[in-house]
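Repro:
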Amino acid sequence: MTENFKSKLPHVKTFVFDIDGVLTDGSISILPSGEQVRTMNTKDGYALQLAIKQGYKVAVISGGKESESSRKRLKGLGVTDVFLGVGNKVEVLEEYVELHNLDLNNILYMGDDI
């Protein structure tokens, strides 16, 4: 019998995501004012808020430009740990793990970085 992906991850308690290329399609619209706007999928938003309601910790660590609209969207979904404009994501993740006394083996990270 083939094991499904979900059954391989029972130890995951925390999700950490990048924004650009993960919670967005990677494109940025530039308004006439020069403001840069990202588009996030509502289905991802539903999944994030559902994960939080089910007791998972969810954090976002993004190297992208500080964006009050992105922060507001994520906070509205219940994501309280949002780190934007980060130069060293590994360092921020290590601090986050220490602050919340987490085990890296219980964290699933999704990003499109090299």
